[in-house]
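Researcher: Structure prediction, please.
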Amino acid sequence: MGVVDHGQAAAGVGLGLNGGMTTWLITGCSSGLGRALAGAVLARGDNAVVTARDVGAVAGLVDGYPETALAVALDVTDGGQVAGAVARAEERFGGVDVLVNNAGYGYRAAVEEGDDADVQRLFATNFFGAVALIKAVLPGMRERRRGTIVNISSIGARISPAGSGYYAAVKAALEGLTGSLRAELEPLGIRAFAVEPGLFRTDFAGRSLTQSADAIGDYASTAGPRRKENDRVHGTQPGDPDKAARVMIAAVESAAPPSVLVLGADAVEAFGGVLDRQRAELEQWRELGTSTDFD
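Model: Predicted structure follows.
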């Protein structure tokens, strides 16, 4: 494979394992941002391990790229399938340069309405599935002293809307993990960052969205409007998944990707509003907050 300049690779030049070709492993490619990203990666000539629980759902995406695409069935909650997907990537392409943890789905419920089993499944997929993939690719990345891990979060982690408490919590957990991961991996020449998309025209608010079975009347005016039967956003979201894919690729190739990449004008505005409110609240409570130290 030749000698790789670790500093250059860490600087975002995008050195891959096969003569400069970057190998991506992307989860959740059957639709939405994952599918758009996989298509963009393949169109630019990179290798891509394209995964979905139903591998048939990505057949049309990979058929045109017999040399650079590998379709793999992957349920991220299945440890055997996680290990198998990484092993197949290593066997076919020599390893994984970029892991994108995109697999996941939404769940809406007032906190009191949330079903314990539903919430456990949500965390198993959206959080612990990502953790399993990270652990599976890191030995190879550490050995090569290069690589990038991209964890797809949500602006929901920042704004915590009523009715999305559990989804906001699972994405906030993923972002917290990503921040620590970034600090741990930077000295090794490996980068990690989170992506916070806003509303994009995908199946997220349609087929992919789940919710609590029962609704409590007292939450009709807060969590209620976000229930599927009341939400009219599906199909009208402002974000273009293909444009998002191009921006994510640019961030991966950047010499200094952000700790959190915010995607969509709606998300950027919402993020800024949260920061402004938090700063104002911090200053309002500064005196009392700093009064707790020993004299």
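Model: Residues 17-289 form a domain with the Rossmann fold fold (CATH 3.40.50.720).
Researcher: Thanks, that helps.
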